[in-house]
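tl;dr need the bound structure. longer version: we got a ligand (flavin-adenine dinucleotide) that a collaborator sent over and nobodys looked at where it sits. i said id run it. heres the input, straight from their email, havent touched it
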Amino acid sequence: MTDAHDEWDVVVVGGGGAGLAAAASAAEEGARVLLFESERELGGSTRLSAGLFTAGGTAVQRALGVEDTVERFFQHYMDLNHWQLKPGLVRAFCAHAGPALEWLVSLGLDVPAAVSTDAHTPGLCQAGVEDVWRGHVPRDQGYGLVEVLERACRRHKVETVLNTRVEALLYEDGRVRGVVADGIEVRAPAVAVTTGGFAQDPALVERYYPRAHRAGESLFVVAAPGSRGDHLRFASQVDGSVTGEGWGLMLPTAYFQRYHHWQSGFPPASRVHVNAAGRRFMDEDASYAVSSGIIEAQPGPVWAVFDERARRGLPVGYADWTPEGVAAEAAAGRTPRAESLDALAVSMHVPAEALRATVARWNAELPHGRDSEFLRHRTLANKGGPTEPDPIGEPPYYAVRLLPAELVCTHAGLEIDGDAAALDRGGAPVPGLFAAGEAGAGVLGERYIGGGNAVANAVTMGRLAGRNAARAATH
Ligand SMILES: Cc1cc2nc3c(=O)[nH]c(=O)nc-3n(C[C@H](O)[C@H](O)[C@H](O)COP(=O)(O)OP(=O)(O)OC[C@H]3O[C@@H](n4cnc5c(N)ncnc54)[C@H](O)[C@@H]3O)c2cc1C
């Protein structure tokens, strides 16, 4: 409870999706809220995102005739994560995700009841491995979502301090009593830690998500600069429980990519992914929820093989996947290029006969809108791509190495319960401490869910953290 010396009821640490949702909802409860943001502007990774939001049983789904329930969403979520997450927490998340989305809509976010074929067209899209469509794409993407929450915070008189990195929690007599920022103690009975992930801190990545380093020199980070893992430092101050170790989201990319695909561009539709055996092993357009795992499960290197027509047809204007970009990589000897598939196979160190047979099988089916082995025709249709991609047959041929190398978000953080209360190592709530988003762990598991798992987690659990922090402080 607030005591006479407290100027604030709730302090929120970090102003991305989770923090803004926490601040707005705490203020809606009547709390006096102070929000610290370490960077010059609010938004964090949430601002950089597509804003894609996964939720089940929503008005948008109903309007499009998609039958869905919280229970079904929960079942899918747990199954895809092999039940390695705590069911009670995930059930709370699934139950509150739909209402959190409706809340955003009530605050001004536009999510039209329209079919979307990608993560950028406003509406409802299918992420690729879902039983029903759950990917809600807002107009103006993550930027739009952040703007809506910022406006709500302003309306509710949330005090925002930019450019100020909270350095520690105030922890006295077994409870959190505020924070320290710029060497100054700011007292409050409840604190919500919403500092995002740790992708920008190589030492923390090494410790909590070492798998990312398998990408070697190809590794690049697209998470916001403020993703420095301060929540993990706070955890050690309060004997907090840390969970989600070893998990995060790596997207598969070409070895030469350095940017998120909006800037990097996209590989050609007419391509076949082959493994070290020279065989196809996946739907080339499989959802990013599962594609990194499929690639990592291959015993050796993985390649995207395409022909000259596909290279020439790449759109211009992107940073990496352009006709000139691929030609330059080939000229530099980094991308194998050859006049025949047999010669290409030699450069790739794969069996030539297998590669020839793989491409022949692909050509016999995909250009006719069929994929009996990997069902890619379904993904192409859902993505609004060419349902009958060109055959692969015009030399020279190219083979581009693919690997999960784009680090998007990290999942290790302060363990939370279904009320977004942070837990200590004995499993009891740390009095006065709440956490959400990437900083509050337990909802994001080994497998990304959706389209839209991480933004939904940030806003949904952030909203709960703010509401419960306000109640803890003022009741
Ligand atoms: C390019 C990109 C695209 C993505 N697209 C999607 C998508 O479409 N859908 C989806 O579900 N997920 C997506 N993600 C992931 C998703 O955006 C994030 O997981 C989610 O938004 C994280 O929200 P957050 O509030 O936890 O963290 P953030 O939004 O990163 O906010 C954390 C904030 O805390 C601040 N901060 C950190 N430490 C301190 C401190 N000590 N004191 C004060 N402030 C601090 C940071 O500067 C930052 O502003 C994407 C991520 C990226 C990078």
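gonna send this back to them w/ a short note. The chain has a mean pLDDT of 95.
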